[in-house]
Specification:
Layout: H1 25-35, E1 41-45, E2 48-52, E3 56-59, H2 61-68, H3 72-84, E4 88-92, E5 97-101, H4 104-107, E6 114-116, E7 130-132, H5 143-157, E8 163-164, H6 167-174, E9 192-197, E10 200-205, H7 208-221, H8 224-227, H9 240-255, E11 259-264, H10 270-283, E12 288-292, H11 293-302, H12 307-318, E13 322-326, H13 339-355, E14 358-363, H14 367-373, H15 375-385, E15 389-392, H16 400-404
Helix pairs in contact: 2-3, 9-10, 13-15, 14-15
């Protein structure tokens, strides 16, 4: 039986097996689940009393490194990986690290509101094995239409499966959840739908989960504050070059494939248009990863001597369904990119060139300037972009941020 679930008692951490170090990543994740607060409470930290909610824990990289037998750098990378996958959120200050297990109730539901059901699995479908009663809210889609939408979604994924709905499935699908990031009439904001496939109970990811995860990544990227503001409708086109930029960006977003490059004058709206493209792609269900070149390049270069850690970090960007690289080829002090900078950029760009994955670039360097630095790198971008290349000439008068300041 591949499905089903078990309860893990916190005393597991006192067992001699738990003392073996170093932990693998699986054990480290389980340790976080066991350590997180089961109920809301408070923790005294120095002279301050800090509220800690259900599914949260206060710790530090030093403590986790000691507990798991890892280096601090490995702990930091692991937490970043979990955060990038939408499994937890990390908040740090000078005194502590606050971790929040996202969707904690999925792993540790309160027994009094859950129906625990044995499940069986066939194939490789994602299985959820408990249902949670949630508060009703206004229905935006009648039950009959919702079931039709669920059937259409499941049949598209598994056209040969024998599909049915027993009372338990109907009851689960009728309930409303409390997931944020999208308002889905199919799963009703639970993230999963329930059905009987080939006689077995299945909980299957709703199609909205890709959009929710993309939104989580966007929020963690730092673009969340401007994502709602940086839309195509909000982009002003008072000058011809702005109309050209916007028209090309809208056409690229509508096609939903290929590469897009916009470079040149700072403050002319390059990030605005690329963020608008990302928003449209996410609405269409694509998963977008946002990369700030000036922040991620130093991290990648620092990991060069740790082959496994470097490969894991680089693969995040190589394998992203859609990758938006902001400030591409920008250096911290405005100098010329080094050979190491160019080599790292080439490795990433070449991998995505070979895989054909959708990629978006913005930066102060125009594509012709990139080609001057490295022809092999720039020509690959040029070929994949086709006609979706925008070069904005250097002109301080095009810096709308200065215009807003009255300069």
């Amino acid at each position: 039986m591949a499905g089903g679930w078990i309860k893990l008692h916190r005393t597991l951490r006192e067992h001699w097996l738990w003392a073996e170090k170093p932990f693998d990543r699986r054990s480290a994740w389980i340790d976080l689940l066991l350590t997180a607060n089961h109920e809301a409470g408070r923790v005294a930290l120095g002279n301050e009393v800090i509220p800690v909610g259900r599914g949260e824990l206060i710790t530090s990289e030093v403590k986790l490194a000691e507990k798991w037998g890892w280096s601090r750098q490995k702990v930091r990378g692991f937490l970043k990986t979990l955060e990038g996958d939408g499994m937890l959120s990390v908040k740090k200050d000078s005194r502590k690290t606050m971790l929040t297990i996202l969707r904690y109730d999925f792993y540790q539901n309160r027994g009094e509101t859950a129906e625990e059901q044995p499940m069986h699995s066939k194939g490789t479908q994602t299985i959820r094995i408990r249902t949670t009663r949630t508060k009703r809210r206004e229905r935006r889609l009648p039950m009959a239409e919702q079931k039709q939408a669920i059937v259409a979604m499941l049949k598209k994924r598994m056209p040969t499966a024998s599909l049915s709905f027993e009372r338990g499935a109907d009851n689960y699908n009728e309930q409303w959840g409390d997931l944020k990031g999208a308002d889905c009439p199919i799963c009703r904001n639970k993230g999963y739908v329930m059905a009987q496939l080939n006689g077995c109970d299945y909980f299957v990811d709703c199609t909205c989960m890709a959009q929710r995860k993309s939104r989580q990544r966007l929020e963690k990227s730092g673009l969340a504050a401007v994502a709602d503001e940086y839309t195509f409708d909000a982009f002003q086109t008072t000058e011809p070059f702005q109309k050209t930029m916007k028209t090309l960006a809208e056409r690229f977003a509508a096609e939903g494939k290929g590469w897009f490059y916009i470079g040149g004058q700072m403050g002319c709206g390059k990030s605005h248009l690329c963020t608008a493209i990302c928003n449209d792609l996410m609405v269409g269900g694509k998963q977008v990863h946002y990369m700030v070149w000036t922040e991620e390049l130093p991290k990648l270069k620092a990991l060069k001597m740790e082959e496994a850690a470097y490969a894991r970090e680089m693969n995040r960007w190589k394998e992203a369904e859609v990758l938006y690289i902001d400030d591409f080829f920008k250096t911290r002090r405005g100098g010329t990119p080094t050979d190491a900078d160019i080599g790292t950029a080439f490795e990433l760009v070449n991998a995505r060139y070979n895989s054909g994955r959708m990629t978006i670039f913005s930066g102060e360097k125009t594509l012709p300037e990139v080609i001057e630095y490295d022809e092999a790198l720039g020509s690959r971008i040029f070929q994949r972009c086709g006609g979706f290349v925008v070069s904005v000439g250097k002109d301080r008068g095009k810096n709308y941020r200065l215009k807003q300041m009255g300069q």
